[in-house]
Amino acid sequence: MAKVAPIIGTEMTNEMFFEKFIELTQSVVSNVRKQCVTVFPVMCEVLGVEVLESHMLPLYVKLCDDTLWNNRNACAQNIQYISILCSLNLRRKYLVPIMKKFMFDDSRWVIISALNVSHLLPLSFLFNSFLIILEFG
Questions:
Q1: Which of 64, 73, 56, 57 is CA-nearest to residue 109?
Q2: pLDDT digits (tens, 9 = 90+) for 15-74
């Protein structure tokens, strides 16, 4: 799905894969959800900003609250790619609280991933959003 989506484009990806992808993100099988998180940035980029804002970002937020640490870890590893695709307001509203939660997660692997990723985030994310954590944290 993720390998074909960039080739076939937004319209066909939306027609062929969008509903199935949404269904897979809610699977009871944890490895399926983890694979969805892994390809989430690719799907968001191909589907476009409108679909990201209306459908994909709420799914990502839900996946970030997964009960299994390996799925939350995959979300923590991909947050920088999601942040590139989001507007500043969406980063402030959704991604900053998620990143803060990852940094204080119960799993040390999620914490390590969040801290490793924090130095890779785009400058706009760092300077605009992490200041919010420092001010209101």
A1: 73
A2: 999 999 999 999 999 999 999 999 999 999 999 999 999 999 999 999 999 999 999 999
